[in-house]
């Protein structure tokens, strides 16, 4: 092979491949769309690696935070599909609490009449309500001699939205769906630990996602942020694909006085990383948009580090780590948006 041919091949690899890579993610068409009333139930579960999540963040008026995740996970035949529930209480009366539960998928029940998703009717980990009229989450379980009784009502709920049809296509085979079911709401209810019950109030948010493949196979990093303020809220959820790190899956919503604006990202770049609690994670992230200036998120405080597989027994944990390629570690805390505006953040990395 002569030098000219070698040079030509080099140029093709260097210049054409990145251009092709930039077409790996096909984003939704159109702009902001309202979700249909009550559209919160499980999607059609396609494929052996299908996963689905309902992720809540609640900022309480007393300074505490609540994270609640409900999930459906398929393991490609390595083990039976499961549902999961995870609760994190941050800065609750000066302490952090974390508990997770897992059940066989066959036990899950969804009632369309009131949109109740019950992970296991023999337990009490569920949500229900026809959005945007009403919504409730309940999480009751025991761990380490603590009985958790979490009962939260969502009120004055902003109707759910998504970008176009909410579906991002990845390559030729995979897709990710993102719908912000609760962009902003008020919350009330109570939190009881071992019968010590406290009435709560604050602001709530929930995003509903699904993916046709395992997140660790599709994405390099996932992160989100939420900002609840007096006149509304802003939120962002992003995934950086492994196969095309110049592209991004996700969007930002800006809600103010009942009006919501969609911000479509063109790129997300990790500008720097820092070691926190034994893990190296992004600490400065730049988000650029199709029709507005770039922004940045800078991490300045870690309030929680959770190894997602810690709750599993030895054999289940070994199977899950083999399936995922490692342990998923999630960091949560406070960050700054554009250097000044405080936001709550969550970053997930593979250990």
Walk me through this protein's architecture.
By secondary structure, the chain is mainly beta. The protein has a single domain (3-350), classed as AttH-like domain (AttH-like fold), CATH 2.40.370. It has three helices and 24 strands. The chain has helices spanning 3-21, 215-218, 314-324, and strands at residues 25-26, 32-34, 51-60, 65-73, 82-92, 95-104, 109-111, 116-118, 124-128, 135-143, 146-155, 161-163, 167-170, 174-193, 196-211, 219-229, 232-241, 249-256, 259-263, 265-276, 279-289, 295-307, 328-337, 341-350. Strands 1, 3, 4, 5, 6, 7, 8, 9, 10, 11, 13, 14 and 15 form a 13-stranded antiparallel β-sheet that branches. A nine-stranded antiparallel β-sheet has the order 19-18-17-16-24-23-22-21-20. Strands 2-12 form a two-stranded antiparallel sheet. A hairpin with a 2-residue loop joins strand 10 (135-143) and strand 11. The longest helix has 19 residues, at 3-21. The radius of gyration is 21 Å and the shape is globular.
Which tags fit this structure?
single chain, 351 residues, mainly beta, AttH-like fold, 13-stranded antiparallel sheet, 9-stranded antiparallel sheet, 10% helix, globular, disordered N terminus
Short structural description:
The chain has 351 residues and is mainly β.
Write the layout of secondary structure elements.
Blueprint: H1 3-21, E1 25-26, E2 32-34, E3 51-60, E4 65-73, E5 82-92, E6 95-104, E7 109-111, E8 116-118, E9 124-128, E10 135-143, E11 146-155, E12 161-163, E13 167-170, E14 174-193, E15 196-211, H2 215-218, E16 219-229, E17 232-241, E18 249-256, E19 259-263, E20 265-276, E21 279-289, E22 295-307, H3 314-324, E23 328-337, E24 341-350
């Amino acid at each position: 092979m002569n030098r000219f041919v070698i040079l030509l091949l080099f140029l093709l690899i260097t210049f054409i491949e990145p251009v092709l890579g930039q077409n790996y993610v096909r984003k939704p068409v159109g702009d902001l769309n309202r979700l249909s009333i009550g559209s919160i139930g499980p999607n059609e579960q396609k494929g052996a690696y299908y996963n689905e999540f309902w992720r809540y963040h609640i900022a309480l008026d007393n300074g505490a935070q609540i994270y609640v995740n409900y999930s459906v996970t398929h393991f490609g035949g390595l083990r039976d599909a499961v549902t999961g529930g995870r609760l994190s209480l941050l800065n609750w009366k000066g302490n952090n609490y974390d508990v997770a539960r897992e059940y066989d998928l066959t036990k899950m029940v969804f009632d369309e009449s009131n949109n109740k998703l019950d992970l296991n009717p023999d337990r009490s980990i569920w949500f229900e309500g026809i959005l945007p009229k009403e919504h409730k989450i309940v999480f009751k379980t025991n761990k380490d001699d603590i009985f958790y009784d979490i009962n939260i009502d969502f009120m004055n709920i902003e109707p759910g939205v998504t970008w176009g049809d909410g579906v991002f296509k990845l390559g030729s085979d995979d897709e990710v769906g993102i719908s912000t079911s609760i962009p902003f709401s008020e919350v009330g209810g109570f939190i009881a630990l071992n019968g010590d019950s406290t009435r709560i109030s604050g602001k709530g948010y929930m995003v509903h996602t699904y993916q046709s493949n395992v997140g660790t196979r599709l994405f390099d990093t996932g992160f989100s942020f939420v900002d609840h303020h007096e006149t509304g809220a802003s939120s962002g959820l992003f995934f950086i694909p492994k196969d095309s790190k110049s592209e991004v899956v996700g969007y930002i919503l800006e809600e103010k006085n009942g009006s919501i604006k969609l911000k479509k990202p063109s790129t997300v770049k990790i500008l720097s990383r820092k070691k926190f609690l034994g893990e190296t994670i992004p600490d400065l992230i730049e988000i650029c948009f199709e029709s507005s200036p770039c922004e940045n998120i800078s991490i300045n405080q870690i309030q929680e580090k959770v190894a997602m597989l810690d709750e599993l027994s030895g054999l289940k944990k070994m199977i899950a780590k083999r399936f995922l390629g490692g342990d998923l570690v999630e960091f949560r805390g406070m960050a700054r948006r554009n250097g000044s505006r405080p936001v709550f953040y969550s970053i997930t990395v593979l250990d």
